[in-house]
Amino acid sequence: MAKIIIAGDATVIKSTLKLEDIALVQKSRPKALTVYDEEDGKKIPESAFTIGVTAGKGSVTGFGICFNSASHDQGLAQVTVPVPAGEGDLKERVAEAYGVAVTKLAKLEAKLPEIISGIKADNAAMLGSIEMM
Amino acid sequence: MIRVYIGDNVNYNFVTVDPSRTLKSVLEENHIDYARSAMNLDGAALKPGDLDKAFTDFGITTSCYLLGVKKLDNAA
Q1: What is the pLDDT of residue B72?
Q2: Of A3, A44, A60, B56, which residue is most buried, by most CB within 10 angstroms?
Q3: Interface probe with B: pick from A36, A47, A61, A108, most Cβ of B within 10 Å
């Protein structure tokens, strides 16, 4: 599951997925980056939650997460957002503001590794078929 | 990500997009003809050049309505 790190006035959400892998799926199979809640076995369209990579400012909302940087050690996708304003326990405020997004992100983190492996295998096969004369 | 309700004032759907994208790129991706109707963002008319701006340039952080206003008066 992704980590939420509070550092000063900033909240960093760090995924278990690599930024480059999310970018790869975004290019090859963008629909795989969306999860839905289900009711009676049917997807609820209004519950769509999507992740992606952006070159601009990252964001975290109830509709999805835009990652805009990679961790320095393992290249894991991360986004930095402000600590939510308000009174009370800081951890609870962060959990209330970003907890739902991180929970939904976990669903994608569970299903995407297999998809990423498949895309890389397809790309490797395609690369192997290229001849140079 | 933000939710954009996109279409015209009669029929619209919603999509989830990166708020750093331009309005035009989202309209084109969803096959919306922005050349033949007056485009509104959250009820405010867009001016020439506005479609090349990003949602963040308009202060959109969560959701918005990006609709083409069709004039149906006297339509056949």
Answers
A1: 56
A2: A60
A3: A61
